[in-house]
Write a structure and sequence with these properties.
globular, two-stranded antiparallel ribbon, 74% helix, 2 strands, MetI-like fold, mainly alpha, 13 helices
Length: 314
């Protein structure tokens, strides 16, 4: 009798489990149905092209003939004998390590100013966010090229102080810096995020610091910046990744070949040249995977260093 009771109890538990499993499946069916388009896009537009790109990076492929397996030749040539690849990497690193900090400093400074109860805050916020909505676009790049051209507004302004005109975008010593200024000018997105973070800092901290006699700079470096380190870290990671993928400004302002004298030869521009101008698709695929490795390495380094300077409330 005891054995029969145990069997009945076990069968009842199995029925309950099956019933719970069916209920769970019925609940998740709708969610899976809505996720299906995203899953199809992920597989068709991301996963399959990534696998194809990985395979092509080990081949010689000119888009007209069947890929020919060459092993690691593309990677070896890139890292050992391609001087333009080295130049493109140097240009991109300079663009990232100067432009991103400058952009974040401008975004943070303006967010601090706007956070001080400025009238019409929403209007100012929208105005300063417009450059991020417009760029990096073809129209903004063309406008920027005109601004820094020989007959541009920049030269007209500098002529007031007796400075001779210069074609800033055609001078190898200054062309890259015009693109860096463009990157810094597009500070709207990180500024809005900084402003949202500033709104979350408790006012009690500032009131207590004021009672203790702390000045503005003390509050900035002892309260504001430490409390915003998670936001700073987020903006730093996102803008670093975006800057590494820059293409349009260099393509329009520096010319389709990265001129003058390869001074604006961004990594993605050189990848484009190899893929769609010289039809070395296998070579370009290898470049794409190297770029992925570079971005992953710098992002991983940021996460590793974040343990030392990013402070969370917990």
């Amino acid at each position: 009798m005891q054995a029969e009771a145990l069997e009945r109890e076990s069968a009842l538990l199995n029925v309950k489990k099956e019933s719970a499993g069916r209920r769970l499946w019925n609940k998740n069916k709708v969610a899976l149905l809505f996720l299906t388009p995203w899953l199809i896009g992920l597989i068709v537009l991301s996963l399959i092209p990534m696998i194809a790109s990985m395979y092509l990076s080990f081949t010689h492929y000119d888009m007209f003939n069947m890929p020919k397996w060459t092993g690691f030749d593309n990677y070896i040539n890139l890292l050992t004998s391609d001087l333009r690849f080295t130049q493109s990497l140097k240009v991109t690193l300079k663009y990232v390590f100067i432009g991103v900090p400058l952009q974040l400093i401008m975004a943070f400074g303006l967010a601090v100013v706007l956070n001080r109860g400025v009238r019409g805050l929403s209007g100012f916020r929208a105005i300063y966010y417009v450059p991020s909505l417009l760029g990096p676009s073809l129209a903004i790049a063309i406008l920027w090229k005109q601004l820094f051209g020989m007959d541009g507004i920049i030269n007209e302004f500098l002529s007031i102080f007796g400075i001779a005109p210069n074609s800033w975008v055609a001078d190898p010593s200054t062309s890259l810096y015009t693109l860096i200024i463009l990157l810094a000018w597009q500070f709207g997105s990180p500024m809005v995020i900084f402003l949202a973070g500033l709104k979350q800092i408790p006012t009690d901290l500032y009131e207590s610091a004021s009672i203790d006699g702390a000045g503005r700079f003390t509050k900035l470096f002892k309260i504001t910046i430490p409390m915003l380190t998670p936001i700073i870290f987020f903006n730093l990671v996102m803008q670093l990744i975006n800057a590494f993928q820059a293409f349009t400004p260099a393509y329009i302002i520096g010319g389709q070949t990265g001129g003058p004298l390869d001074s604006t030869l961004f990594y993605n521009l050189y990848l484009y040249i190899k893929a769609f101008t010289e039809f070395q698709m296998g070579y370009a695929s290898a470049m794409a995977w190297i770029l992925l490795a570079v971005i992953a390495a710098f992002t991983g380094l940021l996460f590793l260093l974040a343990k030392k300077w990013v402070h969370y409330e917990s």
